[in-house]
Write a structure and sequence with these properties.
The complex is a heterodimer of chains A (39) and B (467).
Chain A (H helix, E strand, L loop, with lengths): L17 H4 L9 E5 L4
Chain B lengths: L3 H11 L12 H6 L6 E5 L5 E6 L3 H13 L17 E5 L3 H13 L5 E6 L3 E3 L4 H5 L9 E3 L9 E4 L2 E5 L4 E4 L2 E4 L2 E4 L4 E2 L7 H4 E3 L3 H13 L3 E7 L9 H15 L6 E6 L11 H13 L3 E3 L4 E5 L4 E4 L4 E3 L2 E5 L2 E2 L2 H4 L10 E2 L12 E3 L4 E2 L12 H19 L11 E9 L2 E8 L7 E8 H18 L1
Parallel strand pairs in B: 3-4, 3-11, 4-7, 11-23, 13-20, 14-15, 14-20, 15-16, 22-24
Antiparallel strand pairs in B: 1-2, 5-6, 8-9, 9-10, 12-21, 17-18, 18-19, 25-26, 26-27
The chains are: A alpha+beta (39), B alpha/beta (467).
């Protein structure tokens, strides 16, 4: 996985380069990212 | 952030078969969130972010998933940036206006709408009680309430300093992260600027802070003789009656302490009459009550300087008075973050529409002491909690109506009132229509004990009801 420098993608409607980021979205209906902390 | 090992262990424990991406350096977290957890992001197969919210908004999230499944990827239209009912209102300031706006909006808004209140302090302070603290009738803990209690009502409390209002991007930047908003309510109050008066911190006690009122109480207890001064350094100041109430309460205090004959009391103000927005008869009535109590009233006293070495208060026309205990009303100004924003009007505060409280930016409202509202007489509506309260209700109703797709008829009617503490367990009361043309139509009630009890009952109700 590669993170692009300076990427800000909070606003709905933003298009993120999923291929470059290596996010496993190909062949799916979409991807859910949940950020959480276990403690 | 979680390590790769902890992610793997978690996956195994719950037998999860979907990919779990460790973000040990927090790069994704910074790219996709405002710094809060939990945060959910839904990305379409074309890389479009279709949902991004702190915590979990079931309604908005379900709608976004349904859209992803219903629409073929190739022809999928851009999903609108914000689902209205799942939008967010950010309220800046946890004073009277902010609290009422938050509670009212949470009560009225459609399910899923987020209400976030931002304040630098952990506590709300009910400011009318400061006058009673000044004469030892209240302790600070009796009129403070923790703002985190709002969370019980479903309101997010974000404790932080507001650093910037990025109105073009609809983002409030705070010391604890950025907050996007659909509607913004600015209720940051007026910032006190005692530091702009040289010598204030040496000889004056600030009437508008709990610390200042504690100092005034100690100084009154220690006083045996001399002159008490109540000084209004500049206009505007909040709660037009407060300095007069301070004079009445101080007079009552020294009389009950048995030292009244040894103490002079002076009230210095740039106003030509007490509460000049009100009809002349009301100001004359207050002036008569000052005279009846032997309080020396100095109208049109345009403050020039303090002389700490001689404990003197000086007016621009040269009038000079020596005081032994000085109760000060410091200059008021809009908070720095507002002064640095395009919201600032020529009055030095934010100009709000008299009925809707809308500012010069759509979806941005300013209420309470941070706002300047023009009356038909072209004077400004006084800065007072009662107006912040009513303005907040009008704004919350407008936002809620808009969220439901209704044309809102909600507006602020300009009605207001206040109690005037007179000491000795007595109070007066004045109220009416401040939007009456050509000047406010107000009535004053005969002073008495029931009005004092009414003021206490209102304090108790307010603190119980709103926090």
């Amino acid at each position: 996985m590669k993170v692009l420098e300076g990427l800000r993608a909070i606003e709905p409607g933003t298009i993120v380069p999923v291929g470059e980021l290596g996010l496993p979205v190909a062949g799916t209906k979409g991807l859910l990212l949940v950020f959480w902390k276990s403690t | 952030m979680e390590t790769e090992e902890s992610c793997r262990a978690w996956r195994e424990e719950f037998r999860l078969d979907f990919p779990v991406i460790p973000d040990a350096e927090g790069d994704l977290f910074r790219a996709f969130t405002n710094g809060w957890v939990p945060w959910s992001v839904l990305i379409g197969p074309d890389g479009r972010v279709v949902f991004s919210e702190n915590e979990f908004d079931e309604e908005g999230f379900s709608a976004a998933i349904r859209q992803l499944y219903q629409e073929p990827t190739a022809t999928k239209p851009a999903i609108r940036p914000r689902v209205q009912s799942a939008g967010r209102t950010v309220i800046l300031g946890g004073g009277t206006g902010g609290l009422v706006a938050a509670r009212e909006l949470q009560r009225r808004a459609p399910a899923g709408h987020r209400v976030v209140l931002v304040d630098r302090s952990a506590d709300h302070v009910y400011q009318p009680s400061l006058l009673w603290q000044m004469v030892g009738q209240r302790r600070p803990e009796q009129f403070r309430r923790p703002l985190h209690r709002l969370e019980r009502k479903g309101i997010k409390f974000h404790q932080a300093d507001v650093e910037e209002l990025d109105l073009d991007s609809q983002i409030v930047r705070t010391t604890a992260g950025d907050l996007e908003y659909d509607s913004l309510v600015v209720s940051l109050g007026a910032q006190l600027a005692p530091e702009s008066v040289p010598g204030f911190d040496q000889i004056a006690y600030n009437l508008y802070t709990s610390e200042g009122c504690a100092q005034i109480h100690s100084a009154l207890e220690a006083l045996r003789e001399g002159a008490i001064g109540i000084l209004i350094t500049s206009m505007p100041f909040k709660c037009p009656a407060a300095p007069y109430e301070a004079a009445f309460l101080a007079e009552s205090f020294v009389r009950q302490a048995g030292i009244r004959r040894n103490v002079e009391i002076h009230l210095f103000t740039p106003e030509h009459t007490p509460m000049p927005v009100a009809p002349a008869a009301l100001g004359e009535s207050i002036a008569d009550m000052l005279a009846a109590r032997g309080i020396n009233y100095h109208p049109l006293f345009t403050f020039s300087e303090l002389r700490p070495e001689t404990k003197e208060v000086v007016a621009s026309d040269g009038r000079t008075h020596k005081v032994d205990l000085l109760i000060g009303v410091p200059p008021h100004q809009a908070p720095e973050v507002v002064r640095a924003s395009p919201l600032l009007g020529v009055s030095g505060f934010v100009h709000s529409d008299a009925r809707t409280l809308q500012t010069n930016r759509p979806g941005v409202f300013a209420i309470g002491d941070v706002a300047t509202v023009r009356l038909p007489s072209d004077k400004a509506l006084p800065k007072a909690g009662v107006f912040a309260h009513a303005e907040a209700k009008a704004v919350a109703a407008q936002i809620a109506d808009e969220l439901e797709g209704k044309t809102s008829g909600a507006s602020f009617d300009g009605k207001g009132y206040c109690w005037v503490e007179l000491g000795d367990g007595r109070a007066s009361w004045a109220g009416g229509d401040f939007y009456a043309d050509p000047e406010p139509r107000l009535k004053m009630r005969r002073p008495g004990r029931p009005l004092h009890w009414g003021k206490i009952a209102f304090e108790q109700w307010w603190l119980r009801h709103w926090l």
